[in-house]
Amino acid sequence: MTDPRPPAPPADPGRRELLRQAALLTATAAGFGGGLTLLTRSAGSGAGPAAAPPVPEPAGRVIRPSGPYDTREPLTSYRDMTTYNNFYELGLGKGDPARNAGALVTRPWTVVVDGEVRKPVTLDVDTLTRWFPPEDRIYRMRCVEGWSMVMPWLGFSLGDLLRRVEPTGAARYVQFTAIHAPDKLPGQRPWVLDWPYTEGLRLDEALHPLTLLAVGLEGRTLLPQNGAPLRLVVPWKYGFKSIKAIVRITLTRTPPPTTWALAAPHEYGFYANVNPAVPHPRWSQATEQRIGESGRRPTLPFNGYAEQVAGLYAGMDLRRNF
Ligand SMILES: Nc1nc2c(c(=O)[nH]1)N[C@H]1C(S)=C(S)[C@@H](COP(=O)(O)O)O[C@H]1N2
Ligand SMILES: [Mo]
């Protein structure tokens, strides 16, 4: 049997190369001897033989599109969804997050919801799912690197949680913060990004019914490599907005900093709406590689969710606000 997975698209090495060079620069500036060896090893899959990631089993339950937002497109295989990942806290290679999954301890897990709200809460992730029972949502996922998947999440609308904590009249944005545990997470030991990973949405984007907090995938509890125990899913934006392993959700008056915009502001904006008409400075965004398919398919404006979300950006210049 041949591996059904196509080779990684050229955009992937592009972004990794940027990071490698940046990390190298930092290491050199700091005067570390042997920095290159260290960095090569931190790049994981690029560093010679390593154990293949374990292949997890999906839940036996068949998941069929049922809701108004579910795509009818065929699901990406559970194997690909759980072994081809971006989660830099667990390593830079696509197979690293699955290989290093054991480093992310997901229970117990506390989430703080605070900032511009009348009723801030600190609660256990399992309490959260008792408050908001998760449902299946089948969404397209488009990475800024040029590949895509169809993923059946288990989750609830972020808006349900936000309404529960009662945003004040001053709330305009929502900031998300991921776990920071450099003693445990192998990807947080070398400098790769400005940890912890942080993301943000405008409040109206956060309240849109498509915006999901996911706790599962294909009928199963989320695996660490997919951002367990709690991750954001914003299907009309590039994948990097969908922050994994969330520990804090803060409502703010001003736009929060976001990790990729901090790392390379000319390449990654705050909005990051999927837009085939606006190329990344180093590659086109007109087409994508659907993982498991051969050949490339056209990328759709707002990743195919224009009908639902284009109105959020009426009157905005989407080339400037990229
Ligand atoms: N905390 C954190 N969240 C993250 C990332 C990351 O490196 N760290 N990578 C992002 C990117 S680039 C993508 S494409 C998606 C991938 O999600 P998946 O592996 O579940 O498909 O997670 C996003 N969320
Ligand atoms: Mo991505």
UniProtKB/TrEMBL annotation:
GO process annotations (BP): protein repair
EC code: 1.8.5.-
Top EC category: oxidoreductase
Stored Gene3D superfamilies: Oxidoreductase, molybdopterin-binding domain
Annotated region described as Disordered, given as residue ranges: 44-70
PTM comment: Predicted to be exported by the Tat system. The position of the signal peptide cleavage has not been experimentally proven.
Domain of life: Bacteria
Residues involved in Mo-molybdopterin binding: 85, 88-89, 143, 226, 231, 242-244
SUPFAM superfamilies tied to this protein: Oxidoreductase molybdopterin-binding domain
UniProt cofactor note: Binds 1 Mo-molybdopterin (Mo-MPT) cofactor per subunit.
Catalytic activity: L-methionyl-[protein] + a quinone + H2O = L-methionyl-(R)-S-oxide-[protein] + a quinol; L-methionyl-[protein] + a quinone + H2O = L-methionyl-(S)-S-oxide-[protein] + a quinol
Keywords for this protein: Metal-binding, Molybdenum, Oxidoreductase, Signal
Cofactor(s) needed by this chain: Mo-molybdopterin
GO molecular function: metal ion binding; molybdopterin cofactor binding; oxidoreductase activity, acting on a sulfur group of donors, quinone or similar compound as acceptor
Sequence ranges assigned to domain Oxidoreductase molybdopterin-binding in this UniProt record: 107-260
PANTHER family in alphabetical order: PROTEIN-METHIONINE-SULFOXIDE REDUCTASE, PROTEIN-METHIONINE-SULFOXIDE REDUCTASE CATALYTIC SUBUNIT MSRP
Family designation: Belongs to the MsrP family.
UniProt subunit comment: Heterodimer of a catalytic subunit (MsrP) and a heme-binding subunit (MsrQ).
HAMAP family, A to Z: MsrP (MF_01206)
UniProt function note: Part of the MsrPQ system that repairs oxidized cell envelope proteins containing methionine sulfoxide residues (Met-O), using respiratory chain electrons. Thus protects these proteins from oxidative-stress damage caused by reactive species of oxygen and chlorine. MsrPQ is essential for the maintenance of envelope integrity under bleach stress, rescuing a wide series of structurally unrelated cell envelope proteins from methionine oxidation. The catalytic subunit MsrP is non-stereospecific, being able to reduce both (R-) and (S-) diastereoisomers of methionine sulfoxide.
Descriptive protein name: Protein-methionine-sulfoxide reductase catalytic subunit MsrP
